[in-house]
Amino acid sequence: MREPLRLSLGSRITLHDLVIRAEAGDWIVGRTVTGQFVELPQLGVTAIGLLSQDRPLGAVQDELAGDPDETVEVVEFVEQLAELGFVRAIDGIEVEESAIDSQDQLEPSLPWIRPGHVRWLFSAPALAGCAAVTVAAIVALALRPRLLPGYSDLFISRSPTTVVVADTVITLILMGLHELAHLIAARSAGVPARISWGTRLFDLVAQTAMPGVWAVSIRLRMRCYLAGIALDLALTSALILAEATGNLSSLAEHVVRCTIVLLVIGVAMQFQVFMRTDVYFVLADLLRTRNLHDDACGYLLTRGTAILRWLRRDRAKAVPGIELETTDGREYRLVRYYAWLMIAGAAVSVAALAAFIAPAGVTLVARSWSELAAGLARSDYLRVADASAAILILVGSWVFFLVVFLRSRSQWWRRVTRDAGVR
After folding, report:
1. pLDDT tens-place string over residues 370-396
2. Contacts of 179 by beta carbon, 8 Å cutoff, 6+ apart
3. d(CA 285, CA 292)
4. 210: alpha, beta or left, given left = phi > 0 and alpha = psi -120 to 50?
5. pTM above threshold 0.85
6. In terms of Cα–Cα distance, which of 105, 86, 98 is closest to 34?
7. What whole-number distance in Å separates Cα of residue 263 and Cα of residue 242?
8. What is the three-state SS of 70-131?
9. Among the four 38, 114, 253, 364, which has the fewest Cβ within 10 Å?
């Protein structure tokens, strides 16, 4: 908990290093290291400029009040800046960073990669080369439709353990490359980024946090959002062309076709915009709703709280509302529509989990356990090793998912409940 701010018209404040840039008729202001950005009118930017000159708040308020009938509440404005983590000190006393703000300032991944090392990857010749490979792959598929793999290509062996191990290893490699593409794109734009484990509903995923992405132009933001999908499509195209040559061995062809299927599945999952996928970030940016997902979660949380209190007939207590004071009517409507999309998407995903994914996983573990017991009974140690590996991978992945889920959701839950005003 932060200590209450002691502000008066005689106070002087020191601000952190802030990014201030114009976009779409307004001003984007924020801190790259924490990812906290807001959209302000010209008056707010002028106020920040005056506050940066070590003036008392009263003097800033007097200068901003050009019209004697207009009241400018500078103290309230500074309190809002402090909530965003923009204020470094008040009257020379350091302002304590919140736990969430401190967490957001973790060291970036692979700091030795410099913008100059990777900027050429996004040059016109490099992009033209990727486009040429993609077009060539499309032509190859049109001429030879059999090159298009199917779901059955995920099973590269008759051994369940070989399938689990191979698919897991390939998936991990592809996840790493996908996130590395995001990190390289962010680094080329001068945006700090870090790769970590995370979860989306019941999926374990790698993710790249780019908290300072709003410090750059929309063109560079799109580069950061879409770099992973672009790499996936380029790899898919290259593998299709490699198979089209006909020079692959049987094993290599199986691996290539399996990899293509996993790449296509990965790209398709990025279009699940009811979660924080790559396409979600593109959509939220184009709609100019920088906090769409968390705002929708806060909206659902407050509505759910209201329903529970109504059911308990606890109507005397006020129901906190989501804090969207700076959000116009258009954005508030988008938050509500997106909240319903989240509910629908989550419901379909949970239904798929209950109907297909969970039973398949449990069945596979049960069969592997039976294989393990049979192998022990017959002293067939190859069979024992095969079954044991499958059990360890499946159960281990579930345990790892649970650990990552609990660790990542605790911080997210604190932020959403804080923003929604729920305690």
Report:
1. 888 888 888 888 888 888 888 888 888
2. 195, 206, 207, 208, 228
3. 9
4. beta
5. no
6. 105
7. 15
8. CCCCHHHHHHHHHHCCCEEEECCEECCCCHHHHHCCCCCCCCCCCHHHHHHHHCHHHHHHHH
9. 114
